[in-house]
Amino acid sequence: MDRIREEKIQRFEEFVDRRLKPDLVHAIAQRDKVFEQQKIFSDLKRNIENLERNSVTSLSTLVNLGSEVYMQADVPDTRHIFVDVGLGFHVDFTWSEALNYISAREEKLDRQIEDYTRLIASIKAQIKMVCEGIRELLQLPESS
Amino acid sequence: MAEGLKKKGTVKSLSSLFPPEETQKASERVRDTIAERHEELQQLKSFISDNTNLVNLVRTLPNELNHQIMVPFGKAAFFPGQLIHTNEFMVLLGDGYYAERTSKQTVEILKRRGNILESQVESLKADIQDLKTEASFFENEAGRKDLVEIVEDYEEESSLQEVSKAGDSKADFASSTEAESKGTGNEGDEYARIFSRIAELEKEEEEAEKDEDDEDEENEDDIDHSVNQDSVDQESISCGVDGSKLLPVYQDGSSQDGTPASSKPRFTESSIKPPVRKENVRAPAVTKEEVFVRTSEPSTNSSKAFTGSIVEHTRNLETNPREPSVAHSSKPVSRFRMNRK
Q: Membrane spanning segments where (chain A) (predicted)?
């Protein structure tokens, strides 16, 4: 009887340690990536709005050549902007088009974040449930 | 590894020293470390190739007045544009400071960075080589039955002998070891202290020449501070005759003692010590005067005073050369012990 229980507990613990916890770490990393994307696009949106507000048509900036070496660059016409739409494709947008695209993209990112958050919550719930099962098998008093 | 083996000349076979499981674990760990180092090396190499690419780019950019490029705008967007002022670079020097450099100057900076990376690669390679030797030891040598480890504690033995040699004066030995254990930096302090003490004593003697009782107390103090109780007794016995005899004896003694005191240490002691010795040699000169002065004084008192002064200064002469030598011989002992602890 005791041996069976011990084996069960061991199987549960292995499930938590080898399956659920790596899953959780992975899901959190994925969500962080999406957060990053969200930040990039919100920055871009703010910048474009800035350009619009100040009606900037030409721009001079510094380009990073790598290893923090910069060179001056000149943009004669800022009304056309190439935005990364994924898979290495860039689309030539005007400002308003770009803003429309960005808001659609942000919506999608928000949904993704929500999905990941839900996934993380469910993994956490599973971990908690398995731990509770182990506790019952060990017949320990309730901790919390 | 062989901390437990402190007996003289222990012989153990290597395979018994390293149990196979432990050997396996160790070699695994070493191999892991090697893999880690290889990753680091790979990273450094990618840095180096980036750097050389950048050097080439920086070299070729000023060839033309402007270059058509896509100017990045944030991480997800670009503008079509061009590079202007192609011979002006802003280079990060570190800590948020940038410098405006020409193409040539930038190439120089980048080459220096490349050299640093190369040296890092070299040190990493040496590191990997060391680890590989370690791994090969665990894999090949540690398991062999025909290899033995011989452990012999040489220093322990020699230090014990020196302890017994120097052991005739325990108090001084303790104080000297204390002084030594503080390190070489405190040796100077120690001698400075002795120095100042001697000067102090001389001054006191000059001031209190007529006050014999005080003088005696001082002498006693001095005896307490100096080392060898047996030698003190012998000295006082040999010198403890009447005043007329004492004077030549003392003069001879001082001159005899003076020469070995000055000549001995030059052969045996380190260069820091002679100054102290000179001070000692000078000391009897002062006391000689005292002795002459005292001969004019009442005989009972003078004989008392003589024994006292003679005891003091012969003591200083005899023991002081000895004292540092004791300290000297005890030096390895204390350091060795420090290391052991």
A: none
